Amino acid sequence: MADFDVVVLGSGPGGQKAAIAAAKLGRRVAVVEKRHMLGGVCINTGTIPSKTLREAVLYLTGLNQRELYGASYRVKDEITVADLGMRTQHVIGREIQVIRSQLARNHVTVLQGTGRFLDEHTIGITGDEEKKVTADKIVIATGTSPARPSSVEFDDRTVIDSDAILHLDKVPETLVVVGAGVIGIEYASMFAALGTKVTVVERRERMLEFCDLEIVEALKYHLRDLAVTFRFGENVAAVERRPRGALTLLESGKKIPADCVMYSAGRQGKTAELNLEAAGLAADDRGRIKVDENYATEVPHIYAVGDVIGFPALAATSMEQGRLAAQHACGEPAGDLHELPPIGIYTIPEISFVGRSEDELTRDKVPFEVGISRYRELARGQIIGDSYGMLKLLVSSEDRRLLGVHVFGTQATELVHIGQTVMGCGGTIDYLVNAVFNYPTLAESYKVAALDAMNKMRTVARLTAEM
Fold first, then answer.
1. Environment class of residue 319 by beta-carbon count within 10 Å: exposed (0-12), middle (13-18) or buried (19+)?
2. Is 364 left (phi over 0), alpha (psi -120 to 50) or beta?
3. Averaged in consecutive runs of 10 residues, what is the pLDDT profile of the chain (467 residues)?
4. pLDDT at 265
5. What pLDDT, on a 0 to 100 scale, did the predictor assign at position 406?
6. Which residues have C-beta within 8 Å of that of residue 94, sequence separation ≥ 6?
7. Contacts 24+ apart (CB under 8 A), 243-247
8. So what's the pLDDT on residue 161?
9. What integer pLDDT is reported at residue 68 of this predicted model?
10. Potential cystine with 450: which of 45, 361, 385, 432 (Cβ 3.0-4.6 Å)?
11. Collapsed DSSP state (helix, strand, coil) of residue 42
């Protein structure tokens, strides 16, 4: 008999939920994780630290209150790395305690060390001592790490990635961010809010290509107001370390001196140490593992979930993947991941959306109307000093179903779930028009936007009838 029914490699969102789901089904479960990485990248170097850092930046800079108290308002004049790190380390510590307690409460064994396959049912663990365990089912949830181009010489001080940026010894006066994806733009906005002069270099012609164009333009305008410079359509030729910083050389001939250069060049699956070949598996050139609709790999009793399998690579979807994979591995009925996962981008201000965009609907020849609500028109928007936020609804012109929700501004990642729920239930904007929302709230923006869309559709119908 195997040592465990299920062994999970990695304790991030996907691994943790897989382990607990299997344990709740009465299985003997173990999680393999490095000593100082319980909670995985999400808790220790990724989602939780970066989002906590964002909240610390917003509070200490007083950025959200400047609309009310003036552009010079700040909670603290000289903000140090220690100021930012204090809250971050506190939250990380508390989250690790929560995860440790959840695993213990569900009788999940934690095996400290680095796991690797010895064969398709055996895991070798390298840690304080060498050991090996066998399992009937195995779930790979090792996550990703920042991709580091081989042409760039990283030193974790002047030329860094998104992990190392959390450990800078001071807030840089100038910063170059290479890559305008989610992580790059999130950190660019945080440091810009701190007063750092940020330059974003992106080889494509726009940032966040998967987002609604109007929302992205609003974010870009706001970041430029924070003195962020954008260099789109530019490739980095080289980065030279200098005694007082680094010089970024672009292929166009431009030279950008800065205290620090942060590369945000995507993520690489953490599979190099797994010895996948011993289990009959292989990863692609980005370290990702191929799975089927049940998250099973080509070896049926081995599953993979989370960032290591690629898109959408979100903590929220990874949790669901882990739970569903565990249910399938244990022979229990498992549903499908909901087709309407919300996307949240924790820039300053934040962005969130669910469903389809204007470009997608236009491409697919789906007739739609747009309803807009702007925070400055809401009492709550005036109270909190958010004059730039907006909520956009995309509505079917044929049956008034809600097709997409796009939010920019304060609490965007919270507000989007109202639209997600309406869409998930196949609802129309009639519900939003007739619903009563607390006043004054930002949620009221749904009613305003729904009325805007409804009035536009009625106008089109009336004018069409009169023609």
1. buried
2. alpha
3. 96 97 97 94 93 92 77 77 88 96 97 96 91 96 92 91 89 96 96 96 94 95 95 95 93 97 93 96 96 96 97 92 96 80 95 96 96 97 93 97 97 97 94 97 98 95 87
4. 84
5. 98
6. none
7. 245/158, 245/174, 246/158, 246/159, 246/176
8. 93
9. 72
10. 432
11. helix
Write the CA distances from 111 to 284, 381, 402, 410, integer angstroms. 28, 49, 47, 41
Supply the pLDDT for residue 125. 96
Give pLDDT, residue 221. 94
d(CA 234, CA 254): 9
Show Cβ contacts of residue 445 under 8 Å, excluding neighbours closer than 6 positions: 373, 375, 378, 391, 415
Amino acid of residue 411:
Q
What's residue 94's pLDDT? Answer: 96
Amino acid at 288: R
**pLDDT at res. 165:** 87
Q: Write out the DSSP string of 310-341.
A: -TT--HHHHHHHHHHHHHHHTT-------S--
Q: Which of 449, 379, 454 is nearest to 415 (CA)?
A: 449
Q: Which residues contact 465 (CB under 8 A, 6 or more apart)?
A: none
User: How many Å is the Cα radius of gyration of the chain?
Assistant: 24
Residues counted in the chain: 467
Q: Which two tokens stand for residue 159?
A: 């030329």
Residues facing residue 29 across a β-bridge: 6
Q: State the burial class of residue 77 (Cβ atoms within 10 Å of its Cβ: 0-12, 13-18, 19+).
A: exposed
422 burial (CB, 10 Å; 0-12 / 13-18 / 19+) is buried
| Virtual torsion, Cα 89, 95, 98, 99, nearest 10 deg | -120
First vs last Cα of the chain: how many Å apart? 79
Which of 141, 166, 147, 366 has the alpha carbon at shortest distance from 268? 147
Predicted pLDDT of residue 69: 74
Q: What pLDDT is recorded for position 373?
A: 98
* Tokens standing for residue 77: 């004049």
